[in-house]
Design a protein that fits this description.
single chain, alpha+beta, Helix Hairpins, Heat Shock Protein 90, 3 domains, five-stranded mixed sheet, 10 helices, 57% helix, 17% strand, transmembrane
Length: 462
């Protein structure tokens, strides 16, 4: 219970109420002490009036008057004359004098605290104004022991009453908080657990019912989140089903196209001029279709492992990428170059970085070859204190506006006509696994430039 919100609220409420009662306790005890002393002055004045009314009272009657007043001596000042009206032997000398004619609250509290803290019986003198202007000043001497015992008794009763008030207040607040806050919060948590068990079930989406404004706002925000998540899950499920269907279709279509490709190889040997003119176009179309099917199947089943980071020479890796592309250039006037510092060592997964660079260079090569014009592709590298940068620059025709809008989204159109866009999507995914990024820096009629950035440190190393 102590770890619950309502339990802690109960404890804090009790503590705060007790603290408030303690702050009230000192002024209350000070006021009680003042009233006690004023009552003694009042009784002493009545006893003095009886003495003044009869000058011939006996010693026994005088002692009885002083005993009833609770004092040892009574001094009345009238007409600037100080008169000892009643007196009796005092057990000790006067220890302190307290003037109650116009005391401040601070003085009363200070004297009350000092009285409680001093357990020794003392003799004190108390000065006050007589009632109904019966003189100028009234003085009495009395013991502190009865005063202190009365103050302690009063204080204990105040503390007991405060404890009862604290417990009752805390319990009432406990029940109120439990009903107004804890119960709705538990209901909200239960609903979240129910929704988490089957998030695709729209019937489990929260319906706001809280009357407290803050809780209702939280319920409305959670309702919006659950609605969006349920819709996203449904869309994801539909896309997964669609992806499975596309993969099956692509698999069968690839087999059919492969067979068609074998037939076109024989058609190319025909002597018919029309066949010779149309056969290359048919071969290219079938080849592109087979390539698309294979890329779709590869993307659909791809589960890229986490990169295995090692240190290696970047220039050697770039050299392997360019050597592989040179074999595909053929007789076209296309030059490949690199500007990599010979001793530049980077930390990455060699296989995944090779695939990313190969995709980018291949796209650039196909774009330049498609124009039928000479061109150049360059790979350069640089670094700063935290990041390695690799720039892939080409002199191709640039990317069309439609391709730039969805450049790194699969199946939204590639950087070249007839492309699927899978190469850039896969490259970006591989680089994100390194904590890096792939972005298009520029693209116009003069060519395109892509930038790869790879962080030098892991997140946990920061």
């Amino acid at each position: 219970m102590l770890n619950s919100l309502s339990g802690r609220f109960l404890i804090l409420t009790t503590i705060f109420v007790m603290l408030a009662e303690v702050l009230i306790f000192l002024p209350s005890v000070a006021r009680f002490r003042e009233d006690f002393l004023l009552a003694r002055l009042e009784r002493a004045q009545i006893a003095s009036l009886a003495r003044l009314a009869n000058d011939n009272i006996g010693v026994d009657l005088e002692e009885e008057l002083l005993l009833n007043a609770g004092v040892f001596n009574v001094v009345l000042r009238r007409d600037e004359a100080r008169q000892l009206v009643l007196s009796s032997p005092m057990p000790d000398a006067v220890w302190a004098t307290y003037d109650l004619r116009d005391p401040s609250a601070t003085t009363l509290i200070r004297d009350a605290v000092a009285q409680l803290a001093d357990p020794e019986p003392r003799m004190i003198r108390v000065i006050g104004n007589p009632l109904r202007d019966a003189g100028l000043l009234l003085e009495v001497t009395m013991e502190t022991a009865p005063l202190r015992m009365a103050m302690i008794d009063y204080g204990l009763r105040i503390l007991a009453l405060s404890a009862v008030i604290s417990v009752i207040t805390a319990m009432m607040l406990f029940l109120a908080v439990r009903r107004l806050l804890v119960k709705p919060i538990k209901k909200l948590v239960h609903q979240m657990a129910s929704y988490a068990a089957a998030p695709e079930d729209a019937r489990r989406i929260l319906r706001p019912t809280a009357g407290v404004r803050e809780l209702r706002e939280a319920e409305e925000a959670l309702q919006t989140l659950e609605t969006q998540l349920t819709s996203a899950l449904k869309q994801k499920e539909r896309l997964a089903q669609l992806g499975g269907a596309v993969a099956k279709i692509s698999h069968d279509l690839r087999n059919i196209l492969t067979s068609a490709q074998l037939f076109t190889d024989r058609i190319e040997t025909s002597d018919d001029p029309t066949v010779q003119r149309l056969a290359p176009k048919l071969v290219n179309s079938i080849t592109r279709a087979v390539s698309l099917c294979e890329s779709t199947l590869a993307f659909g089943r791809a589960e890229e492992p986490a990169p295995t980071l090692t240190r290696f020479n970047l220039a050697e890796l770039v050299g392997d990428v360019l050597d592989g592309e040179r074999l595909a250039i053929g007789d076209h006037d296309l030059s490949l170059s690199e500007d990599i510092p010979a001793q530049m060592m980077i930390r990455a997964d060699t296989e995944q970085l090779y695939r990313a660079l190969s995709n980018l260079v291949r796209n650039a090569r196909q774009a330049i070859v498609g124009t039928g014009k000479p061109g150049e592709i360059n790979i350069a590298a640089r670094e700063d204190d935290t990041t390695w940068y690799i720039d892939i620059t080409d002199t191709g025709p640039g990317l069309p506006p439609k391709a730039r809008e969805h450049l790194f989204q699969a199946f939204h159109g590639g950087a070249r006509k007839g492309g699927s866009g899978l190469g850039l999507a896969i490259s970006q995914e591989l680089l994100r696994g390194h904590g890096g990024a792939l972005r298009l820096v520029s693209s116009d009629e003069a060519g395109s430039r892509f930038e790869i950035s790879l962080p030098m440190q892991d997140v946990l190393d920061d």
